[in-house]
Structure formats: C-alpha cells, structure tokens
Specification:
Helix content is 49%, strand content 14%. It has 146 residues and is of the alpha+beta class. The radius of gyration is 19 Å and the shape is elongated.
Length: 146
Amino acid sequence: MAVDLSDLVGSLKREVNPPGSDLFPNATTSDFVGNLVDGFWEAVLDGLITGYSVDEDGIVTPVSGSVDLPREIQQLVVFYAGFRILRNVLRNLKTKFKASAGPVDYETQQSANTLKDILADLTARRKLLLDRLSDMGYTNTYYIDA
C-alpha cells in the first residue's frame, strides 16, 4: 500500500491560509505536493519518520512491509510543509512600505516582533511535536561518545 501526499494538499492549504482566504492563488497542486515531499524529508532528517520512502510524485511507500504511513505522521508532514512555506513567505515579506505624492504620505509597516513571535511559536510547536513523538516511540535517540 502507499500514501499519496496529494491527498494532504487540502490540509496543507488549511495550515497556511486563514479561513476563507487563499494566500497562494497561483500555487498549483504540484507546488503543494513538492512542499509536502520536502516536509517529509525534513521529518526524516529529524528522526521522526523511519522505514518509509517518497518518490518525486509524492507517493509514500514503506521500505519493507505493507503498513501505510500513520495519519498522525501524515499530519506531521503537513506541519513541516506548512512551516517551510510560512518561513519562505516571511523571508520574502517586506516589512515597511512608504509612498509620498506631494503633501500626502502613506506608510504601512508589518511588525517585526510579530513575525519573530510567529516563528518562535512554530519552533516551539515543532519542539513539542518532537518531544511528544519521542515519548510515543516514533523517534530514534542517538548517543555520541566522544
């Protein structure tokens, strides 16, 4: 059996968009699946996913056996993909815009503290997920003896 990450695109869109909005109207399903694949591999690097592989089309298969990727781990992949997307949005976000036309000035500014707090919240959530999944036996613990 296999899990198709394209089935998680709706969950990913809800992760990165406020209700009733579409912040990425030009993004294709392939764009979202690509982020899900990258999120999958980041979770692998963090030791949260073992025994599974994913191809470029977003099909997750067990390396051996036939047990599908559990739904809670699929949601973890959605979180990692959403984290990647939001991090890239914040990286590209202009925090101040100022325009003048004669005696009229217009200025908007996105609070850098708010952006920092959003990233801190996502990082704290990731740490909580890592700790919780470790408690549940999903992660591997490695000890290095110098």
